[in-house]
Every structure is written in structure tokens, then in C-alpha cells.
Inverse folding.
């Protein structure tokens, strides 16, 4: 462009030929000035000084590195980071002393940091611990309880909440405490009659979901309900974060947008606002609900038989102890001595009378090796409501 202008072409014509603006041609001609083209500095550079006026002088940077080496080798306290260097420079009478943050940047720029940055790994996919859920072949309904909400001058209130993992299909049932296993089963049937059956239903280890803990081989009302409807019950690991986090997040929003937002003079007022909030929530998530994995229709003429022998699968997510043992249905099982303190998916197959233990790792969610398979038969004893 500059050569064409110097040969007599107008800047506007050159701009049209090269497809650039007139201002671009003017800028490059101005930078070339009257110099030979091979002596012009064509590299782009920011305006202003090449070296910031507030940059620490090179001799001070060298002194910082020297003080760090001395502190690392001779300090009685054993500290040689930016804060320790700042104190040492102040004792030497250096004025002004660079700030601790500036000293940290100097150490980073000169490659004098020993620590390593935290390595972050990508989060596993939704429902990674259940292959069919992770592959978007089935949806999972999670259930939880919000307990001991107190109405002014009224009864205590418990709230059973539900949320599907892929579809974000929400539900909430506020009612007078206590919320029993029978109430829970009624709410599950109500939800599944209306929206269809998911592939999996996930709970925490509350006795209202799982059954009594003081007897081995205890299969509660909710588990029996799920098995008779062909829904696989899944129980999250005790005291483990992450598995119920999406539902706990919804619980927090429900408490903020419904419970804390209004003064509820009665339980019916709370239930009315909860229904309105849930309707708006479903409208807001309608595209996600529609594109979620399909649900099976609720069987017509179905009745719940609590004395029927359980059939199907129950999944317990557990973390092995230091010896690689896991407790399932009140029985300790030695899974793998090398799998201590790691996650397990324990699949109780009641039809084949087997328990299969699969290893789980968040860093490798697709690798779920079968560690052990043991014989197990659930005793055929009557259900005690």
C-alpha cells in the first residue's frame, strides 16, 4: 500500500484496491514516513512507553531473588515467600518496599515459585454413576425432605420434594409433620400417575425411604413400591456431597421463593403458593421437560401389595472403608482391599440372588469395573408396616 502511494496513486484508490479503510492506508503511510520500506518498523505496538513507569527496577527484582535464596537456605522460621521477603527487605532499609502482591508477581514472572497450581478436572456427566442415566437412556427422579418448618401459631410442616435429573420436573408436597413412609409412597404414586414412571428413583438413607436400619435385610415400603412399578431405587452414599446436590439446590430455591417470601397464615395458604410456584417452574423448564428421556406409562388397574416378595434391582451407592469393605442391607462385604475409601455401586439383583460391586471414580466416570460378585438371597419374611 505504501509503495503504491509513493508511486503516485491516491490513498483512496489504494484503499479500494486492497479492501481496507482509508484510515488504514493513512496510518501505514504515516508510519513509513520518508524511510526506506525495508527499514520501517512494521510491527504493531501499543501507544505509550514500552516499559511501564511503575515496574519494579531490574536491580530490585534481582535483590528479591537473592533474598529468597538466602531465606530458603538460612531462615530459622523456614518461610521464603512474598510476605517473608517483604519483611526482610523492610529490615534492610529498602525504600520503598514493593507490596506483597507485587513481590508475588515478581517471583511468578521470574519463575521462582515452588508451588503448583491446583489441577482441575472436568465434572462428570449428569448421573455418571448410573450408565443408562448418563447415556440419556433413562431419567432419574430424586426425592428429599425439608423438615421442621414452623407456621406462626400453627403446626410444624414437612415438605417432600422431587426433581428429575434430566427434565428438571419439580414437585413439592407440604403437609403437617411428621411425614411418614406411607405419605411418601402416596406422593410417589401421585407423581408417577400424572407424569409417568422414570427409570430410577434416588433417595438419601432416611428410614422413611430405605426402611428400618436396626434390622438386617430390611426392605421398606418405598423400596417395595418402586420395585413393583419397575423403578430401580437408588440410595446415595451417607454423608457424601454431590449426589443429591441438584435437588438440594431446588430445595433452597423453594424455601427462598415460597416459604421465606410470604407470610403464610395457614398450611392451605402455603400449599397454594407452592402449587403456583411449581406450575411456573414447569412452564419455565418446559423445553427441558419435553426433551428429557421418555417415561413409561403408569400401569392401569395397579394396586400396591406390600406382602409381595420384592423382585428387581436395588442400588446402594457406598464408600468403602479403609479395608475395602462395604455395608449393604445390614451385612458387611469385603469387596477389594485395594479399593479403600473409594466409591462403589452395589447392585442387589433380587431375581438372580447376586450383589455386584462396581468401582466408581469421578475422574474416570466411564470406567466402572466389576470388582466382586457375591451370592445374596433376601429372606422371604412378611412386611411389618
Amino acid at each position: 500500500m505504501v509503495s503504491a502511494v509513493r508511486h503516485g496513486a491516491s490513498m483512496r484508490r489504494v484503499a479500494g484496491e486492497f479492501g481496507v479503510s482509508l484510515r488504514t492506508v493513512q496510518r501505514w503511510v504515516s508510519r513509513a514516513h520518508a524511510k526506506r520500506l525495508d527499514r520501517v518498523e512494521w510491527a504493531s505496538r501499543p501507544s505509550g512507553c514500552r516499559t511501564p513507569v511503575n515496574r519494579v527496577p531490574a536491580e530490585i527484582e534481582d535483590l528479591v531473588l537473592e533474598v529468597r535464596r538466602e531465606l530458603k537456605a538460612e531462615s530459622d522460621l523456614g518461610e521464603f515467600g512474598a510476605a517473608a521477603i517483604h519483611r526482610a527487605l523492610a529490615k534492610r532499609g529498602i525504600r520503598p518496599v514493593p507490596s506483597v502482591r507485587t513481590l508475588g508477581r515478581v517471583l511468578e514472572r521470574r519463575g521462582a515459585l515452588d508451588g503448583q497450581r491446583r489441577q482441575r478436572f472436568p465434572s462428570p456427566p449428569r448421573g455418571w454413576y448410573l450408565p443408562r442415566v448418563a447415556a440419556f437412556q433413562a431419567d432419574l427422579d430424586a426425592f428429599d425432605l425439608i423438615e421442621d418448618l414452623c407456621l406462626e401459631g400453627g403446626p410444624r410442616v414437612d415438605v417432600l420434594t422431587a426433581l428429575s435429573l434430566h427434565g428438571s420436573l419439580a414437585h413439592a408436597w407440604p403437609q403437617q409433620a411428621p411425614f411418614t413412609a406411607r405419605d411418601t409412597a402416596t406422593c410417589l404414586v401421585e407423581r408417577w400417575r400424572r407424569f409417568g414412571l422414570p427409570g430410577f428413583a434416588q433417595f438419601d438413607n432416611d428410614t422413611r425411604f430405605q426402611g428400618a436400619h436396626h434390622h438386617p435385610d430390611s426392605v421398606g415400603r418405598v423400596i417395595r413400591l418402586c420395585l413393583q412399578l419397575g423403578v430401580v431405587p437408588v440410595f446415595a452414599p451417607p454423608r457424601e456431597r454431590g449426589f443429591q446436590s441438584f435437588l438440594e439446590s431446588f430445595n433452597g430455591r423453594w424455601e427462598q421463593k415460597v416459604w421465606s417470601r410470604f407470610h403464610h397464615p395457614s398450611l392451605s395458604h402455603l400449599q397454594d403458593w407452592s402449587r403456583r410456584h411449581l406450575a411456573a417452574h414447569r412452564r419455565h423448564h418446559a423445553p427441558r421437560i419435553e426433551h428429557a428421556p421418555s417415561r413409561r406409562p403408569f400401569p392401569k388397574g395397579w394396586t400396591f401389595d406390600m406382602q409381595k416378595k420384592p423382585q428387581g434391582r436395588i442400588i446402594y451407592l457406598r464408600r468403602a472403608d479403609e479395608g475395602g469393605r462395604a455395608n449393604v442391607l445390614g451385612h458387611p462385604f469385603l469387596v477389594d482391599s485395594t479399593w479403600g475409601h473409594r466409591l462403589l455401586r452395589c447392585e442387589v439383583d433380587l431375581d438372580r440372588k447376586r450383589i455386584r460391586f462396581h468401582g466408581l471414580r469421578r475422574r474416570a466416570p466411564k470406567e466402572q469395573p466389576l470388582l466382586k460378585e457375591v451370592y445374596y438371597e433376601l429372606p422371604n419374611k412378611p412386611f411389618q408396616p
Summary: The mean pLDDT is 91.
